[in-house]
Q: What sequence folds into this?
């Protein structure tokens, strides 16, 4: 699948003509069509990717990069540990309230 094919598919999914995309992004008419036989600048590809909420890599390959998306950064891991520690500390308190009443076991499980 070429970059043009990926962009055309994204346009189709979003019920958008390629010429409308060009107009929306301020590109000259037929500039995206030139991707069938040539290339374009990284800046233009980034504008297209941003418009559709995908990566430039996706435009180039048509494949999501799930491995990068699922890996947590060290800061994320630290934040998660802190949230869990705070939650555990909160649950140890007597008389935990939920919606003005004492929290039921089901409500606490729901929070967890």
A:
């Amino acid at each position: 699948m070429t970059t043009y094919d990926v962009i055309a598919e994204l346009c189709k999914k979003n019920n958008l003509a390629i010429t409308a995309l060009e107009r929306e992004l301020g590109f000259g008419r037929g500039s995206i069509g030139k991707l069938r036989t040539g290339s374009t600048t990284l800046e233009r590809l980034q504008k297209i990717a941003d418009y559709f909420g995908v990566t430039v890599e996706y435009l180039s390959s048509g494949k999501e990069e799930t491995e990068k998306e699922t890996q947590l950064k060290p800061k994320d891991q630290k934040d998660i540990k802190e949230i869990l520690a705070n939650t555990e500390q909160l649950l140890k308190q007597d008389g935990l309230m939920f919606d003005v009443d004492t929290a039921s076991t089901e409500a606490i499980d729901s929070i967890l």
User: Anything to note?
Assistant: The radius of gyration is 24 Å.
